[in-house]
Amino acid sequence: AVTKGSIWGVLIGAAVGGAAGNLIGKSMDKQAKELKQAVPTAEVERVGEGINLTFDSSLLFALGSADISPSYKQDLAAAATVLQKYPDTNILIEGHTDSSGSDAVNQPLSERRATAVSKYLASQGVAAGRLTTKGYGSGQPKVPNDTKENQAKNRRVELAITANDKMVAQAKDGELKE
Hints:
Blueprint: H1 6-13, H2 18-38, E1 43-47, E2 50-56, H3 57-60, H4 70-84, E3 89-96, H5 103-123, E4 131-135, H6 148-154, E5 156-163, H7 165-172
Parallel strand pairs: 3-4
Antiparallel strand pairs: 1-2, 2-5, 3-5
Helix pairs in contact: 2-4, 2-7, 4-5
Protein backbone atom coordinates (compact mmCIF):
# COMPACT_ATOMS: atom_id res chain seq x y z
CA ALA A 1 0.00 0.00 0.00
CA VAL A 2 1.24 3.44 -0.92
CA THR A 3 0.35 6.35 1.34
CA LYS A 4 0.67 10.11 1.33
CA GLY A 5 1.89 9.63 4.91
CA SER A 6 1.33 11.42 8.17
CA ILE A 7 3.02 14.61 6.88
CA TRP A 8 -0.02 15.26 4.69
CA GLY A 9 -2.36 14.64 7.63
CA VAL A 10 -0.37 17.06 9.79
CA LEU A 11 -0.40 19.73 7.08
CA ILE A 12 -4.11 19.36 6.27
CA GLY A 13 -4.96 19.21 9.99
CA ALA A 14 -3.11 22.47 10.62
CA ALA A 15 -5.55 24.43 8.45
CA VAL A 16 -6.86 27.61 10.05
CA GLY A 17 -9.06 28.73 7.17
CA GLY A 18 -10.66 32.07 6.36
CA ALA A 19 -8.73 35.33 6.22
CA ALA A 20 -6.22 34.09 8.81
CA GLY A 21 -5.52 31.01 6.71
CA ASN A 22 -5.03 33.23 3.67
CA LEU A 23 -2.40 35.30 5.51
CA ILE A 24 -0.62 32.16 6.71
CA GLY A 25 -0.78 30.75 3.18
CA LYS A 26 0.90 33.85 1.74
CA SER A 27 3.69 33.57 4.31
CA MET A 28 4.11 29.87 3.50
CA ASP A 29 4.13 30.62 -0.26
CA LYS A 30 7.05 32.99 0.30
CA GLN A 31 8.93 30.49 2.48
CA ALA A 32 8.32 27.64 -0.01
CA LYS A 33 9.69 29.76 -2.85
CA GLU A 34 12.82 30.54 -0.82
CA LEU A 35 13.27 26.86 0.09
CA LYS A 36 12.99 25.81 -3.59
CA GLN A 37 15.71 28.31 -4.49
CA ALA A 38 17.94 27.42 -1.54
CA VAL A 39 17.65 23.62 -1.86
CA PRO A 40 17.09 22.66 -5.50
CA THR A 41 17.73 18.96 -4.71
CA ALA A 42 14.71 18.80 -2.38
CA GLU A 43 11.05 18.50 -3.33
CA VAL A 44 9.02 21.44 -1.97
CA GLU A 45 5.22 21.25 -2.01
CA ARG A 46 2.63 23.59 -0.54
CA VAL A 47 -0.05 21.54 1.23
CA GLY A 48 -2.96 23.30 2.90
CA GLU A 49 -1.47 26.11 4.95
CA GLY A 50 1.90 24.41 5.32
CA ILE A 51 4.90 23.12 3.40
CA ASN A 52 6.07 19.57 2.73
CA LEU A 53 9.84 19.50 2.17
CA THR A 54 11.24 16.11 1.10
CA PHE A 55 14.93 15.27 1.13
CA ASP A 56 16.17 12.24 -0.81
CA SER A 57 17.76 9.97 1.81
CA SER A 58 20.02 8.40 -0.81
CA LEU A 59 21.72 11.80 -1.04
CA LEU A 60 21.55 12.48 2.71
CA PHE A 61 22.72 9.09 4.00
CA ALA A 62 24.67 6.07 2.91
CA LEU A 63 22.57 2.91 2.75
CA GLY A 64 21.91 1.69 6.29
CA SER A 65 23.48 4.79 7.87
CA ALA A 66 22.16 7.77 9.82
CA ASP A 67 25.33 9.84 9.28
CA ILE A 68 24.58 12.86 7.07
CA SER A 69 26.80 12.85 4.01
CA PRO A 70 29.29 15.74 3.96
CA SER A 71 28.15 16.73 0.46
CA TYR A 72 24.56 17.17 1.64
CA LYS A 73 25.29 19.27 4.72
CA GLN A 74 25.46 22.33 2.44
CA ASP A 75 21.84 21.78 1.32
CA LEU A 76 20.67 21.29 4.90
CA ALA A 77 22.53 24.44 5.93
CA ALA A 78 20.79 26.34 3.11
CA ALA A 79 17.41 25.05 4.30
CA ALA A 80 18.30 26.09 7.87
CA THR A 81 19.06 29.63 6.71
CA VAL A 82 15.55 29.90 5.26
CA LEU A 83 13.91 28.24 8.28
CA GLN A 84 15.61 30.74 10.60
CA LYS A 85 13.90 33.60 8.76
CA TYR A 86 10.48 32.18 9.72
CA PRO A 87 10.70 31.60 13.49
CA ASP A 88 6.92 31.35 13.93
CA THR A 89 6.72 27.90 12.34
CA ASN A 90 6.97 24.41 13.76
CA ILE A 91 8.89 21.71 11.91
CA LEU A 92 8.06 18.00 12.09
CA ILE A 93 10.94 15.87 10.75
CA GLU A 94 9.99 12.37 9.60
CA GLY A 95 12.41 9.61 8.65
CA HIS A 96 11.42 6.82 6.24
CA THR A 97 13.12 3.71 4.83
CA ASP A 98 12.38 1.30 2.00
CA SER A 99 11.11 -2.21 2.69
CA SER A 100 14.47 -3.97 2.36
CA GLY A 101 15.62 -5.12 5.76
CA SER A 102 13.53 -5.94 8.77
CA ASP A 103 11.31 -3.63 10.79
CA ALA A 104 13.69 -4.20 13.70
CA VAL A 105 16.40 -2.48 11.62
CA ASN A 106 14.32 0.01 9.60
CA GLN A 107 12.30 1.56 12.43
CA PRO A 108 15.26 2.67 14.56
CA LEU A 109 17.18 3.68 11.40
CA SER A 110 14.35 6.00 10.34
CA GLU A 111 14.27 7.51 13.85
CA ARG A 112 18.05 8.04 13.87
CA ARG A 113 17.91 9.72 10.46
CA ALA A 114 15.15 12.12 11.57
CA THR A 115 17.12 12.89 14.73
CA ALA A 116 20.33 13.47 12.73
CA VAL A 117 18.55 16.03 10.51
CA SER A 118 16.99 17.70 13.57
CA LYS A 119 20.35 17.97 15.35
CA TYR A 120 22.02 19.33 12.23
CA LEU A 121 19.32 21.97 11.68
CA ALA A 122 19.65 22.98 15.35
CA SER A 123 23.44 23.22 14.96
CA GLN A 124 22.80 25.62 12.08
CA GLY A 125 20.70 27.95 14.23
CA VAL A 126 17.15 26.60 13.92
CA ALA A 127 15.65 26.70 17.43
CA ALA A 128 15.48 23.15 18.77
CA GLY A 129 12.09 23.90 20.38
CA ARG A 130 10.59 24.20 16.88
CA LEU A 131 11.77 20.71 15.86
CA THR A 132 9.95 17.42 16.44
CA THR A 133 11.11 14.07 15.07
CA LYS A 134 9.30 10.86 14.14
CA GLY A 135 10.48 7.68 12.42
CA TYR A 136 8.21 5.44 10.37
CA GLY A 137 10.56 2.74 9.11
CA SER A 138 9.12 1.30 5.89
CA GLY A 139 5.50 1.83 6.95
CA GLN A 140 4.72 4.84 4.74
CA PRO A 141 6.09 4.29 1.23
CA LYS A 142 5.50 7.05 -1.33
CA VAL A 143 5.67 4.53 -4.18
CA PRO A 144 5.59 0.70 -4.31
CA ASN A 145 8.87 -0.90 -3.17
CA ASP A 146 8.95 -3.03 -6.33
CA THR A 147 12.11 -1.68 -8.00
CA LYS A 148 15.50 -0.37 -6.83
CA GLU A 149 14.51 3.10 -8.14
CA ASN A 150 11.28 3.09 -6.14
CA GLN A 151 13.05 1.83 -3.04
CA ALA A 152 15.42 4.80 -3.34
CA LYS A 153 12.41 7.17 -3.48
CA ASN A 154 11.04 5.67 -0.28
CA ARG A 155 14.30 6.27 1.60
CA ARG A 156 13.61 9.88 2.51
CA VAL A 157 13.36 12.52 5.20
CA GLU A 158 10.30 14.78 5.08
CA LEU A 159 9.65 18.04 6.88
CA ALA A 160 6.19 19.42 7.60
CA ILE A 161 6.40 23.15 8.20
CA THR A 162 3.33 24.60 9.89
CA ALA A 163 2.32 27.82 11.60
CA ASN A 164 2.91 27.86 15.34
CA ASP A 165 0.37 29.26 17.82
CA LYS A 166 1.90 32.75 17.67
CA MET A 167 1.62 32.92 13.88
CA VAL A 168 -1.98 31.65 13.98
CA ALA A 169 -2.90 34.25 16.63
CA GLN A 170 -1.25 37.05 14.63
CA ALA A 171 -3.07 35.95 11.48
CA LYS A 172 -6.42 35.82 13.28
CA ASP A 173 -5.80 39.33 14.64
CA GLY A 174 -4.80 40.54 11.16
CA GLU A 175 -1.30 41.36 12.44
CA LEU A 176 0.67 38.85 10.37
CA LYS A 177 3.01 40.65 8.00
CA GLU A 178 3.09 39.32 4.43
